Amino acid sequence: MSTSSVSTQNSTLNNALATLAPQTATTGTSTFASDLQASENRALEIASLPMQALEADQTTLSGETGELSTLSGLFSTLQTSLQNISSGTGASAIQATSSDQSVANASVTGSALPGTYTVQVTTAGTYSSASSDSATTVTDPTTQNISASTNFTLTVGTSTYTLSADNLNGLATAINSSGAAVQAVVINVGTPEAPNYELSLQSTGFGDVPLQVNDGTNNLMGALNEGADAVYTVNGQPSAGITSDSSTVTLAPGLNVTLGAVGSSTISVSSSLSSVSSELSSLVTAYNAAFTEVQKNTGQNGGALVGDSSVLDMQQALTQMITYSGGSGSITSLAQLGVEFTQEGTLTFDPTVTAGLSTSQINDALTFLGDPNSSGYLQYANNVLDGVTDPVAGVIVTDTQEYQTQNTADQTEINNDQAKLVTMQTNLQAQMAQANALIEGDFSRQEVDR
I need a surface site. Which of 102, 298, 341, 395 has the fewest CB within 10 A? Predict the structure, then answer.
């Protein structure tokens, strides 16, 4: 027997007998005492062999469970990368550009139709504003106000609001909290050495909007700086222009622009795969990590899961999700989007492929990709990966549960065998002690006869 085998046997035996009080060697002075003790030890070592096999099985199960956990993380990352591709499809694939962002800056808010829009801004729009005109000098807005009153009436356009405040900062805060279409700030119109704080109001919408604050006796705001509505046309229509009290206007369903200055700007709306391209790159990285780890568990010198059917299931899932072909347009596979296999079985991605697609090909690509929950490649691949990652019926969780069940069964058998060994040791010690006593008695009688 090798040294390592003896060491393993002794360790298993010692663990099994740890519940007993420390035992001495078989007592006695006969010349056979040490032989009896050796016989007892040998019998216990043989009886512990099944436990050694069970413990070795538990070690194997632990390695298999650990490897499944590693693969679970990698496949979850792969599935998340796949699902993230949808962030660049659908409405997210529509992009709007402006030839002059200082005039009109475009943003897509929904499923805008591809096309070109010419925006002509004839009036950029301005806000109405006014500052307090009080004879009272306010040097500390936290303790002083522009009026001795604590009750005020705010007028914005045709709407009025009742406010209360005992200092200038409080009055500005009350105005901003009133819900009125106006913004209030406190400004210093004096010098740093001799400050003089006033209340400044500005409408939140374009146009001629009356602004006033009254303390019950006097109007506290000075002359109004009248604002003006924005005026613009879209593709020359209507000829009289469209007026707006906001800088942000809806140009078409799902398409907004923010007007900034007088002038003309061309807004172009089209489909784009720029976000999809970035997510495809992430998918390839996640795929390669999962593929490499799966491959470690194949072959003669493979890892903990060599021979496990789950490895084949994972290999098939990886192949299926990449070799999928479907759709009726010009794009029917990932290869046409720049995703290709290497000789080693990993993937590469060429972003210039998606960048070079025509408008019609981009639309076909978006149709091919579809959505993880409803259509196309993304739905198919997501379902394939569910077969591996599903937390209830997936390959990984099913195998893990089987290994855990086997480990529990092994531990139950080990506990039973340990109890049997303890009983066996107790009985053997009693038998060996009795045998040793008989030998000692027979030796004594022989000495007397002499």
Answer: 102
